[in-house]
């Protein structure tokens, strides 16, 4: 009696479950399509498949197109199309990113041993050198497919180029004034090796971060460097003294030469003037010997008497022409006054 009302409820629940299953199966059942429907569906699938061939390359990237895994093209930034997947695929390496590699550091990040850094210089000395290589991808296709391990190959080529440049450079040049030239020569040599191998890598800069002699001899080397610095300082001081004294000596020599030339010209002019004067007098003497002789006599006596403080006149009257008595007033001295008489002394008791 108690279980009779429950039978209709169970039947209702079963019916509801069957209806839900039928609706779900009807939803999963593909619709019936005619020939036109199937054509539209195939066209949609082909359109979606072809759309997978469109790809966009960013401004800092290059597109590397692979056909069944083989490199077939390299594309520039912008929108492009290749054959749809899985025929063609594209890779997008960054070509503007500047990467850095440290020479003297192993691939695992650990610092290499001292013997790995030691290099032989052109004058057969040993030094230890570390360098930083700044590089970027120049051709993405060559970078990915021409070299198996590009970074390992770059490290080996950079170490080889640096050792080659140092091998023909004296140690003093590497440690001082030629350091930048060594870095630039290493960069040029490394770039040439990479271009010949088609590595697709462009070297931006090579920096020598540390160049030192081996630690076992660094104290002795520093002593040698100080001695060379003192030598260079003394040489510079001597050169400075030379640069100071030589111009002054040359200037003094030029001045003396110019004074001598001026004196020479003056002496020549005076001599030529006197010679011309004598020649003129001789021509006049040739025309009137007595007049010129008497004139020369008077001029000579005039010059002579000007220098004399006393003149003696001939009072016999035999001198030529009337002569006036000569009284040298400048030589007459006034008579000296007698000294004043001193007062007689008076004695106290007399």
**Major β-sheet annotation:** 4 strands, antiparallel
Beta strand count: 9
Task: Give me the secondary-structure category.
Answer: alpha+beta
First-last Cα distance: 204 Å
Q: What's the overall geometry?
A: elongated
Can you count the helices?
9
Supply the CATH superfamily name of the domain at 99-213.
Band 7 domain
Give the C-level CATH assignment of the domain at 99-213.
Alpha Beta
CATH topology of the domain at 99-213: Tetrahydropterin Synthase, Chain A
| Overall pLDDT level | 79
Portion in helices: 40-55%
Strand residue content: 15-25%
CATH architecture verdict of the domain at 99-213? 2-Layer Sandwich
Descriptive account of the structure:
The chain is α+β, with helices and mostly antiparallel strands and 350 residues long. Among the domains are: 51-91, no CATH class; 99-213, Tetrahydropterin Synthase, Chain A. It has helices at 6-28, 35-51, 114-117, 140-145, 150-167, 171-175, 179-197, 218-287, 289-306, and strands at residues 54-57, 63-67, 70-75, 78-81, 88-91, 99-103, 118-120, 126-137, 201-212. The strands form 3 sheets. Strands 6, 7, 8 and 9 form a 4-stranded antiparallel sheet that branches. Strands 3-2-5 form a 3-stranded antiparallel sheet. Helix 8 crosses helix 9. The longest helix has 70 residues, at 218-287. It is elongated, with a radius of gyration of 60 Å. Residues 106-113 and 345-350 have low confidence and may be disordered.
